[in-house]
Specification:
This protein has eight helices and 14 strands. The termini are far apart.
Length: 345
């Protein structure tokens, strides 16, 4: 039966339910935890079960499917096809701010296992992540899924984190406990990437001004400098509603090549919460486009918003930026409103 591995660009709920079914386990990893003011310790011990257990996954729904399809737009996911039928998949999401890739789902259809499909899928992800300058893969599994832990070990992962309250406040000691496993990638020094992403600093003032003027050519330094100076004011002063954070992309020589400005809003079209990250400005120098700078800036901004309690992020654009809708779509955003304007004399 011929097998092909291709990038995964879309997936339906029935397809996920066909692949992501559950697991059979003949053992578990017992977690021991002690804590005192002077020392905290964790230990993991493989323990066989008297009777093998069969567990079914129950987390799949349309909301999860929609979120996964947004992740697929980031181009780090792959599917295996046997005779044009989905046989396995790996859904992964890059975090450019720390050069990691999170594996959200990694499964092979039950009747296609023991053919090396999982290893081939992981090999494709490793190649994709390494080429993008990522340094590590991260996955989460449960201590009761000893088979998954062993499979990840065979693929080069090792346990590097334990969360005893990841699912509920009663996970430890008798519930399912989250174990985070990581695989470090073959060294790809950061200087091999043509750019890096950083929070903006006072040393970037002149480049920030240049990038703002490139993004808004009808503006002037007189218009833009006051906000830049206010951003770095000491002692800190209240910032404009449209400027709460900024990130820059930098070339290997240290010069800036991209800019992202963000804010946090209480309202935005299509959003349901009252604390929303908002992309206020995004620009990349022409010589650095199509190299992932914009998407890396967006990823850094999304992480900044998550760390400040935002569960949604929004943006807007105008006809002056014709490539913006496609960039937003590739980054997992969907259009929710379109406005029109007509001057009245």
């Amino acid at each position: 039966m011929p097998l092909t591995i291709n990038p995964l660009s879309a997936v339906s709920l029935p397809e996920l339910q066909q692949i992501i079914t559950g697991y059979h386990s003949s053992g578990y990893v017992a977690v021991s935890y002690t804590d005192s003011p002077g020392q905290s310790t964790f230990s993991l011990t493989y323990t066989p079960l008297a009777e093998p257990q069969q567990r079914r996954f129950d987390h799949l729904d349309q909301e999860t499917t929609t979120r996964y399809n947004q992740i697929l737009n980031k181009n780090f996911s792959f599917a295996a096809f046997a005779d044009d039928t989905l046989a396995g998949l790996i859904i992964a999401e890059p975090e450019f701010w720390n050069r990691s890739v999170t594996v959200w789902e990694f499964h092979v259809r039950a009747d296609q296992r023991r053919r090396g499909i999982g290893r081939q899928l992981m090999t494709r992800l490793v190649a994709r992540a390494t080429a993008a300058g990522m340094r590590t893969l991260v996955c989460e599994t449960q201590n009761v899924n000893a088979g998954s832990i062993q499979a990840y070990r065979r693929l080069g992962f090792r346990p590097e984190g334990i969360d005893i309250s990841y699912y509920t406040n009663n996970d430890y000691p008798n519930g399912d406990i989250a174990i985070f496993m990581k695989r470090q990638l073959s060294p790809t020094p950061i200087h091999h990437s043509p750019f890096t992403i950083h929070p903006i600093t006072p040393a970037d003032k002149s480049e920030w001004l240049r990038l703002r003027l490139a993004l808004w050519p009808d503006s002037t330094a007189v218009d833009e400098l006051p906000e830049i100076e206010l951003f770095f004011a000491e002692p800190p002063r209240p910032l404009p509603d449209t400027l709460h954070a900024a990130f820059v992309g930098k070339r290997r020589d240290g010069s800036c090549c991209g800019l992202l400005e963000l804010s946090i809003k209480q309202h935005a079209p299509g959003c349901k919460t009252d604390r929303i990250g908002y992309l206020e400005a995004l620009f990349v120098d022409p010589d650095m486009r199509r190299q992932g700078v914009a998407r890396a800036l967006i990823a850094a901004g999304e992480q900044w918003a998550r760390e400040r309690g935002c569960r949604e992020i929004a943006s807007d654009t105008t006809p002056n930026y014709p490539h913006s809708p496609a960039l937003h779509a590739r980054s997992g955003y969907r259009e929710v409103v379109r406005c029109f304007h007509k001057p009245l004399e």
